[in-house]
């Protein structure tokens, strides 16, 4: 393979917590067995093609600061191949188990739908070839149905049925590509599935369109025998003021309405959770409660800014809580931890990109190890068991399992002259326990 901007980096290795090297894993010991399987299989780390190889550091106030060789003017397919060469070299550096992409990240748009789809398949051929000599697999594929101006009023929710049809054609081909590359999941993020003003929006109509679209995706998955998961990624706002897939609970209600709750799961992103006024662990626990936890987009926002800054994670407490609830929900299964995170505008060197991922992977691994300890030492579970013990009594079970009506519960409460007493929730004790674990 030709030289890339990552060729000079050796493959990052595990060096242990006391290592001071910037390019070593201190906690991500991929082969270490925890809770019955290697860390690599619990975490299933993925590199996001868009933030790592397509993003150029531009923001609303300034132009590009990140200039990669494949971004220079040139034949678009030749540049796309150079980008793929660099991407796979980067995966080698990290020893990354997975990557994720949108169609628009890997292949240039053409002048027509047919040319755009042809470019996509040309690049899928190229990626398939690269994957044959790489250990990096595809965690998920997706269609970018939000960047081009045709999607300015939505993709499946667009008032124009031709945009719905364009989106359907694109998703069909992206699902074919994902299946061909052995992807574990196919993700839909409703980039512009929302609205700016109800003055020009028929919400009922748009939700019907979105439900129909997702049903068609699920039907097609079964038709082609794609064995991966279909995932929806919730986000409450940005780019539109009101996004239909606001949060996990909203998505669950939507799936129920269209009878898709056993077919579709969620891809939960940390920064989207906080934009919705939740914590990352709240969203994970909600998905766990509904049985729809699919995968994670790892990043963080900036509490002082309040928009989707997609930074690499740096808060061990938050991440430990998140990993604890991942384990409680039964793990990530076919999902994984995708770094939907980008380096800052000033971090334009290849080394910045490597260091960002090494730090992010270590942060997740460290959090997972702590969460596994929380499970293994049993103190949290013991408190929960004690807190809800009353529900194990036969009389309480009768209320829960539908054996009693409201009048029967009322009659019994009155007859028993019940007198429930306040009990401590022990929040500070539990927080102190976690603080000791994290900070020593
Ligand atoms: C947008 C977002 C996307 C999706 C993929 O906020 O998170 O990057 O993950 O389209
Ligand atoms: Co995301």
Task: Walk me through what this model shows.
With 440 residues, this protein is an alpha/beta fold. 46% of the residues lie in helices and 11% in strands. The protein has an eight-stranded parallel barrel with strand order 3-4-5-6-8-10-11-12, surrounded by five helices. Strands 1-2 form a two-stranded antiparallel ribbon. The chain is globular. The two termini are 47 Å apart. Bound molecules: D-xylulose and cobalt (II) ion.
CATH class type of the largest domain: Alpha Beta
The average pLDDT score comes to 97
CATH architecture of the largest domain: Alpha-Beta Barrel
- The neighbouring-strand order within the major sheet is 3-4-5-6-8-10-11-12
| Distance separating the two termini | 47 Å
Ligand set: D-xylulose, cobalt (II) ion
Radius of gyration: 24 Å
Residue runs with pLDDT of under 50 for 5 or more positions: none
Whole-number count of domains? 2
Task: Give the SSE map.
Layout lengths: L32 E2 L2 E2 H5 L1 E4 H6 L21 H19 L3 E5 H4 L6 H20 L4 E6 L18 H20 L4 E5 L4 E2 L7 H22 L4 E5 L8 E2 L4 H10 L6 E6 H6 L4 H11 L2 E6 L17 H13 L8 E3 L10 H28 L1 H9 L6 H7 L5 H11 L10 H13 L1
Parallel strand pairs: 3-4, 3-12, 4-5, 5-6, 6-8, 8-10, 10-11, 11-12
Antiparallel strand pairs: 1-2, 7-9
This protein binds D-xylulose and cobalt (II) ion (CO).
